[in-house]
Amino acid sequence: MRSRPTSRLNPALATAAALISLAAAAPAHAADETAPARSSGVFLTVTGDHNAWVRGVLLDCVTQQPGHHPHMAEACAAIDAAGGDFDALPAKKGICTKQYAPVTVSATGTHRGKPVSWQKTYGNACEMGFSTGAVFRF
Q1: What contacts 103, CB < 8 A, 6 or more positions away?
Q2: pLDDT in tens, 77-130
Q3: pTM for the model
Q4: Domain 36-132 -> CATH class
Q5: Phi-psi sector, 96: left (phi>0), alpha (psi -120 to 50), beta
Q6: Does position 53 have pLDDT exceeding 90, yes or no?
Q7: d(CA 118, CA 130)
Q8: Torsion angle of alpha carbons 55, 60, 64, 68, nearest 10°?
Q9: Pick from 109, 63, 112, 122: nearest CA to 84
């Protein structure tokens, strides 16, 4: 009878296994230290009926980066007046046609450190404009 040779671990394989186990033992928080800082602001979108068109803009009332929202100061003042609650935006009175051409608006992000996730559909752009003022006027 022949004896079977005993298996020996390849030195290169042993080194690779050791390196993998060391990498797995690295602290989990190490990646957090290099993560970029969270951006502030609320990303606003207006979408036409059946997603026929979409437009969006970043509104940052904290850093007030110029060039993003054409009515930034007025929009920030309206959101501040509503306490960050988009359902409580100061509405203006006006007359709109009853034409049904729905538009959906959304706000996602942070406003003055508070998380925002809001969406609403209006019967048409005129109705949206009177209900949201300068916030979605872009």
Answers
A1: 46, 47, 48, 49, 121, 122, 124, 125, 128
A2: 999 999 999 999 999 999 999 999 999 999 999 999 999 999 999 999 999 999
A3: 0.69
A4: alpha beta
A5: beta
A6: yes
A7: 18
A8: -10
A9: 112
